[in-house]
Amino acid sequence: MSNMEPHLLPPRVLLFPLPCQGNVNSMLNLAQLLSLAGLHVTFLNSDHNHDRLVRYTDIQARFTCYPGFQFKTITDGLPVEHPRNGESFMEMCYALNSVTRPLFRDMLVSGQFGLVNCIIADGIMGYTIDVADEVGIPIFHFRSISACCFWACFSIPQMIEAGEIPIKGNEAMDVLIRSVPGMETFLRSRDLPSFCRSSDVSNPSLQLIMTETRQSPRARALILNTFEDLEGPILSQIRTQCPTTYTIGPLHAHRKTRLAKHATNTLQRSSNSSSLWEVDRSCMTWLDQQPLQSVVYISFGSLAVLTRDQLIEFWYGVVNSKKNFLWVRRLDSTPGNKEGESEDIPVELVEGTKERGYMVGWAPQEEVLAHKAVGGFLTHSGWNSTLESIVAGVPMVCWPYFFDQQLNSRFVSEVWKLGLDMKDLCDRTIVEQMLNDLMVERRQEFVKSTAEMARLSRKSVSEGGSSYSNLDRLIKDIRLISM
Ligand code: UDX
C-alpha cells in the first residue's frame, strides 16, 4: 500500500471487458499499455474467465510488476456449467445486462474498487454509461471490433428506415446497402453483421446491439483497436458522431513496441499469454520443421461452433489442396464434442493428413502467425485474428462465423485486398480452390498487399505513428480528467 495522499497517486482506471477471449486479449493489452505509462489499473474479469486465466497462464506474474495493478471479478450472469461459445453469445449479453449490470453498480457505489478516476468499458455494454453517470465517474467506451463493424452497427436505424433491414429473402443477399455512409459501393446485405439477417427488426439481438452501440457518443471518448491507415475513411464517418475517437491499435503490436523500451527489466520477459484455453506449444517445434511459407494456419477463434458437415467439408478441402497445415481444433468447437469422444471422421481424411498436418486444441496464435513457415491463414475473421494476421503480413481466406466477422471478411477481400472471402459457402471444392489461389495462383499479389499493410501497421505503433501518438493523447486526457 502506498502512503501517498490519494490525490497524489496516479489516476486509477477501471477496465471492464466483455467476458470473451478476443475482448479480454485486447483489453489486457490496453491495461498493460496504461500500466507502462504509470497509471493504476483495476481489471474487472468475469469469475469464469479469471479462473481460466489463472489456470492456463501466468497472468498474475505478468501484472504484479506494475504498481497499483489489481484484478477484480464479477459474475457474467450465466450459471457455472453453462456453455460459453458462439451459440450462447447473445444469452451472455442479456445476462450481463440483467444480472451483472446491477452488481457492477453496487460494487462501484459501495467502494469495492476503491477510488476510481475513470472507467474504460467495452462499448457493447453501452449501459455502463448510465452506471458511470449515476456514480459521477467519467467513462470511455472501448470496442474490440473493427471501426467498419462499429459504424455498420451504428447505422442500423438508417438501414431500417431505408428498408434495407430486414433483408428481403435470399435473393436480396447480394443487393448493395446504400445507407451506411462510406460503404455504398461494396457492402452487400450478406456482409452485414449476422444478426441483421433476422426477418424481424424487433429481434432482441438486433435491438440490443443497435441500442448499445448508439450509446457510445455519450461516452467521453471512443477507443478503437485499429489504425488510421487501415480504416481512415470509416473513422472520418465515425467522428461525425463520436468526435473524440482514439485509434490505438493494433494493440498487441503496440504493447510490444512500448515494452521494448523497457528492455532492462522483467517486464519484457514476462509471458504475454492471456489464453482461456491451455496453449499447446508443440506446434512451434512442428512449424520449425516446415519449409518457408508452406503452412496454412487454420483457426476459427474462440467462439465459432462448426456443424459436423462443415467440419467434413473443411477436412476434404484442406486435404485435397495438398497444403501443409496447422489446425486449431478447440474442444468446444463442434456441438456435443467432449474430451475423448470420437468425431467419426472418415479414415481416408485422417490418413491423408498425417504427412502434412498438425492439430492442437489451442495455439500460441500471435507466435504462429509470425513464424516463417506460415504462408496463409484460414480464419473466421475475428477482429483480433485479422489484426494479428495483418501485422504478421499473412494473407487470409475468410470464413466468417458471426457478428462483426461478416464485415471484416468483406473489407479484407474487397477493400484492403488482403485475401479471399468464402462467406456463406462451405464446400470442399471451394475450400481447395481458395487455398490454392492464396498459396499458389494469386500468391504474388497477396504477398505484395499484405507486406505493405504490415509495414503501415508497424509504423502506426512506432514512435511518431498515429496509434502511438493517440495513446499518448489518451493517457494525457485521463490524467487531466483525474486531477
Ligand atoms: C469474436 C469476434 O469476432 C471479435 O471481433 C469480437 O470482438 C469478439 O468475438 P473471437 O472468436 O474470440 O472473437 O476472435 P478474435 O477476435 O479473432 O480473437 C481470438 C483471439 O484468440 C485472438 O487474439 C487469437 O490470437 C487468440 N487465439 C485463437 C489463440 O491465442 N490461440 C488459438 O488457438 C486461437
TrEMBL record:
Record bears the keyword Transferase: yes
Entry's EC annotation: 2.4.1.-
Pfam families given in the database record: UDPGT
Keyword Transferase among UniProt keywords: yes
Gene3D superfamilies per the UniProt record, alphabetical: Glycogen Phosphorylase B
Enzyme class: transferase
PROSITE patterns the UniProt entry points to: UDPGT
Catalytic activity reported: 7-deoxyloganetate + UDP-alpha-D-glucose = 7-deoxyloganate + UDP + H(+)
GO terms, molecular function: 7-deoxyloganetic acid glucosyltransferase activity; quercetin 3-O-glucosyltransferase activity; quercetin 7-O-glucosyltransferase activity
Keywords, comma-separated and alphabetical: Glycosyltransferase, Transferase
Highest rank taxon of the organism: Eukaryota
Residues of the signal peptide: none
InterPro entries per UniProt: UDP_glucos_trans, UDP_glycos_trans_CS
Family: Belongs to the UDP-glycosyltransferase family.
Record-linked PANTHER family: GLUCOSYL/GLUCURONOSYL TRANSFERASES, GLYCOSYLTRANSFERASE
Protein name: Glycosyltransferase
Organism listed in the record: Cephalotus follicularis
